[in-house]
Design brief:
The chain has 9 helices and 8 strands. Strands 4-3-5-1-6-7-2-8 form an 8-stranded mixed β-sheet, with helices on both faces. Helix 6 runs parallel beside helix 7. The longest helix is centred in the last third of the chain and has 30 residues. The N terminus and C terminus are likely disordered.
Length: 367
């Protein structure tokens, strides 16, 4: 099945597109893994066990040629949330710490546009973009106000936060006496490395919450362990004992991610939103191995992508060879609400301003 790159017109928002009844509610759940690759059963890895992603794939179009706009965390996430390349939105490098990169103050991001359209937004997990006024979420539990381990890897905590957001959504709908659309962004921190910052938990935080002494316990996590001789070494990674041990640890956190995705989708189901919510799963950049993340090779920018639309069940389980970009997620197929400015025009205006800014900066450097 061939799908045009214009598939992204589905994304924001299905609640207002042609072919959908006026007044009907459509929601979006965006799930982003951290440094995740194709180490799942969905993409033919027969070793790592990912039953929940497999179940999601059975309800999705599976994209085989999805790519990040840039192979680095903050810049990639900024493109997902703005629809602008990093050199146009200003997020040239990593947001946190000494780097302190930020998007330009005038950028109108997805959460900002949705907020202006009175659509409720939420983020749970790793944010890693700024400044705050450019990326305002109504409901936010991120590294800015919580431990990133708790909101990004503790799948029980993530489950409860998703429940809290959805309970708040139902309360808001009762208060308004009508169905209201929402956008929820769940940004897992798995399977990112953590040996540099929390070495006690292992190279990939694979020991965090496993119930062993000093590791704490994540109640909903059933750890899956792998041995170095079991793993599939990617063609771009040297096949050494050290690489195999690293990949085995990575697989354990991929399994935790998978179980977390299952919990999030179960909360969506239990809250009664499953049949009116577009679900998207992907990652921010390539895996954290040689030739992967931060490299402009396929292994650095190629991403998994699953798109599950309750409006297009006839496409569930199909695979697409179409080339798509994470940069395109913010394409919008019409006004979000009656009387709101058409976000497509706002995006085009942003792109033109970004091009103008980039040209001006280039001119200054040449002088």
């Amino acid at each position: 099945m061939q799908v045009s790159p214009g598939w992204t017109v589905l994304l924001f928002l299905v609640c207002c597109c042609g072919g959908v009844a006026v007044g009907s509610k459509r929601n979006v759940l965006l799930i982003i893994a951290d440094d995740a690759g194709f180490e799942t059963e969905v993409y033919n890895n027969t070793v790592v066990r990912t039953p929940h992603l497999t179940a999601l794939a059975q309800r999705s179009v599976i994209f085989q040629n999805a790519f990040a706009a840039v192979s680095s965390c903050s810049p990639s996430r900024s493109t997902i949330l703005t629809g602008l390349p990093q050199h146009q939105n200003g997020m040239y490098g990593l947001h946190q710490g000494v780097h302190h990169f930020n998007s330009f103050d005038g950028v109108r991001s997805l959460p900002l546009l949705l907020k202006q359209a009175s659509i409720r937004t939420g983020i749970i997990g790793k944010k890693h973009v700024g400044p705050g006024p450019v990326y305002p979420f109504d409901f936010a539990y991120t590294e800015e106000n919580s431990s990133v381990l708790q909101v990004g890897r503790n799948i029980t905590r993530i489950k409860l936060l998703v429940r809290k957001f959805l309970d708040g959504q139902k309360e808001a709908e009762r208060g308004r006496g009508e169905a209201l659309p929402f956008f929820l962004y769940v940004a897992f921190h798995d399977p990112h490395r953590c040996g540099h910052s929390q070495p006690q938990y292992g190279a990939f935080c694979e020991k965090f919450g496993n119930g062993e002494s000093g590791m704490g316990r994540i109640p909903d996590w059933k750890p899956q362990y792998y041995t170095p001789d079991q793993v599939k070494v990617p063609h771009f990674v040297p096949d050494t004992p050290a690489s195999r041990a690293d990949i085995a640890a990575q697989y354990t956190t991929v399994s935790r991610l998978d179980q977390g995705v299952g919990l999030v989708l179960q909360e969506l189901r239990d809250a009664g939103f499953e049949n009116e919510t577009l679900v998207i799963y992907s990652s921010d950049n390539g895996v954290p191995f040689p030739n992967g993340r931060t490299n402009l090779y396929g292994s650095g920018v190629a991403e998994p992508m699953l798109v599950s639309s309750p409006e297009h069940r006839q496409r569930w389980g199909q695979s697409s060879q179409a080339y798509v970009s994470l940069l395109e997620r913010l394409e919008i197929c019409g006004p979000l609400t009656a009387g709101a400015a058409d976000p497509r025009l706002l995006l085009e205006e942003q792109r033109l301003k970004g091009e103008s800014r980039s040209q001006s900066e280039s001119s200054i450097k040449q002088q």
